[in-house]
Specification:
This protein has 100 residues and is mainly β. Helices cover 11% and strands 50% of the residues.
């Protein structure tokens, strides 16, 4: 098993998200895990992962603000992305509590 060198702990719990690949068009997806610097997303209506934009916007759960993300990997219906700006403690804690 390879050693993972993550900066932040990942929380594994599904939470609904909205993804915008094109400005103004939002689609449903599920965050499978999240950390302060990244997120794993599974699309509810799987697009061809090759058509997924490198840069997207995400709304997580009931958090009103939108976050910019950059896709780092794609596999089947899942993508791994990093937040353009690391989540601050308040937002991260609110997201994790909403997942419980």
């Amino acid at each position: 098993m390879k050693d993972e060198k993550r900066r932040f702990v990942r929380v594994h719990m599904p939470v609904p998200v909205k993804i915008s690949r094109d400005k103004g068009v939002w689609e449903d997806a599920t965050a499978l895990n999240i950390s302060k610097d990244g997120i794993r997303i599974r699309f509810d209506n799987p697009p061809d992962t090759r058509s997924i934009s490198r840069n997207m916007t995400i709304r997580i759960g009931k958090i009103p603000s939108e976050k910019s993300i950059k896709v780092r990997w794609r596999k089947d219906t899942d993508v791994g992305a990093e937040f353009n700006n690391t989540l601050n403690n308040k937002i991260y804690t609110t997201i994790v509590k909403s997942m419980e």
